[in-house]
Amino acid sequence: MSEKMKHSGLWTLFFTVVSLAWVFPIVLVVVNSFKKKVYISANPFSLPTKDTWAGLANYARGVKLTGFFSSFLWSLVITVGSVLLILLCTAMCAWWIVRVNNWVARLLYVLFLFSMIVPFQMVMFTLSKLSDMLSLNTPWGLWIIYLGFGAGLAVFIFTGVVKGIPQELEESAMIDGASVPRIFFQIVVPIMRPSIISVAILQTMWIWNDYLLPYLTLDLGKYKTIPIAVQYLKGGYGSVDIGAMMGCLVLAIIPIIVFYLLCQKYIIKGVMTGAVKG
Predict the structure, then answer these.
(1) What is the pLDDT of residues 38-75, one digit of tens each?
(2) Secondary structure class of 183 (helix, strand, coil)
(3) Does the residue 177 lie in any domain?
């Protein structure tokens, strides 16, 4: 066996172990979601047996106690609206930054990069106050807030992709009489498609699972996302309906896993394109 093949086998073994370590908590949640709640705390690592099997009772109780379907709807509205707004605004902004390429564009690009390194804790209390003052404490108001926090990474990736698009394509279309919006949506966007899908995946996974930002900004008397609704399963004196919580967590995980599996083939290609050209 050659030295190269030996190293390849070791790396394969290493990443297999790492992958299993990442997947194990998800498997543990799924397994415990079918056990009676008293046995989840007593022996969380055991498989369900005839005595511990709860079937779908945890799921039914979790859905009822949390108002899961209402929370699911608000999570869906917030995630879809925020991701679409981020993709549209940042893709156009990145295109403008690359094609204009003056000091204003370069300064704006630096500010986008700077926004990625500012700790959220520095702005969280001010953000909460401003969201109330500007009436952004609604799901559609949260779209704008997520745009601000998600723009840095998206612009960084998209600018790298746009730099790799031959400008002659756009100039030829302009000579043929194409308008600026038509050039962007019919020429630039199709070329950017892998990176757009990659950014969509990353932003969707972040926004769907986010707890802190909706908790700080939303009017919780009217709107609750899934992560917030799950917290309401906590009772007095630290008691938790762990069975119902496990069931809700599984229901919350399923949509994001399905979305990721459908789009995963684009993520590496899109991110690598932006990184190499950037």
Answers:
(1) 888 888 888 888 888 888 888 998 898 888 899 999 99
(2) helix
(3) yes
- Whole-angstrom Cα distance, residue 163 to residue 205? 27
In a domain, 8, yes or no: no
Q: End-to-end distance of the chain based on CA atoms, in angstroms?
A: 39
Domain coverage including residue 184: 59-277
- Token output for 189: 């966007």
Sort 113 into a burial class: Cβ within 10 Å, 0-12 / 13-18 / 19+. Answer: middle
The model's pTM: 0.86
CATH code assigned at 192: 1.10.3720.10
Alpha carbon 48 to chain centroid distance? 32
Residue 50 main-chain phi, psi, to 5 deg: -60, -35
Q: How many domains does the chain have?
A: 1
Query: For the segment 186-199, what is each residue's pLDDT rounded down to a tens digit?
Result: 989 998 888 898 89
Give the count of beta carbons closer than 10 Å to the beta carbon of residue 239: 9
Kindly state the average pLDDT of the residues 127-136. 86
pLDDT at 3 over 70: no
Tokens in use for 43?
């022996």
Nearest CA among 248, 244, 201, 258 for reference residue 227: 248
